[in-house]
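The data are set out underneath:

___
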Amino acid sequence: MLSSTKNLLLVAGLAAAASAPAAVAGEVQPATHDGVPTSLFLEGTVRDFLASHADFESYPGTYNKPAAVLDDEGKPMLDLAYYDLVRGSRSQSVHSPASFGQWWRDDESEQISKTLKHTIELEQINGSGVYRFARENSNQFFPIDGKGWGTTPNPEDGQSLRYQRGGVHNYHFTYEVSTIFTYTDPRSRDLDGDGRKGEQFKNVNNPGDALFFQFTGDDDVFVFINGQLVVDLGGVHQSQSAGVNVDDEASRLGLVYNGNYELKLFFAERHTSQSNFKIETSIQLATDSSAHYD
């Protein structure tokens, strides 16, 4: 990890999982410039919950610790040792392992959650090789307003939440995005197109040729590469940033050059009144095993 303050998520790699599950990046084929996509379209699954769910509109200011690996279904699990440690205290962040599991699973009965699809577009920034999707501050991330359960709660019914602003948004949802990328030799990359290969990362505005992924937002955010945790922003909190350098983590994650691996992002908007969501990455996230990096 880049720093104790979780300031950056340098995810290096381009990768895809040997067995990537359904619902990865979207089917839209982006425009290209010199063979490089000008945008990345990522389709994900939104699951909309009611504010009355045990894990939503609850536990403000707490930390939610996930297990270091995904389960057999490719979903996050709680770190049970930590859960048992904080259960019943003010540090508890979820009701139970079972309630946490509901965040990432479709409910066919639609009694607990409603499932929808949503695609985001990451646009390349000024030919830099860095892609960004940002919904934050005055333009926040509410992908299912007017859908699912609708406004949370419905002010027309005389209901309101303490921190709800304006009564116009659908809060309390999760968003799951599964993508693939190809991990390449750092010495072979010229991501910014300046003719110099293998330049080192300095910061998000001057990333050189590093493969990185940075997330900024609230609330819970977990990112896994090759089934292993690389970004942990668990809990109900204000907007925070974290990142991983995949080149630094490649050995631990079992990545080899030109191998395809899966990158999965899990996001939860659990509490009014904000929903910030920003991705910045130099990874050309793709939809299938055709993942590549030029």
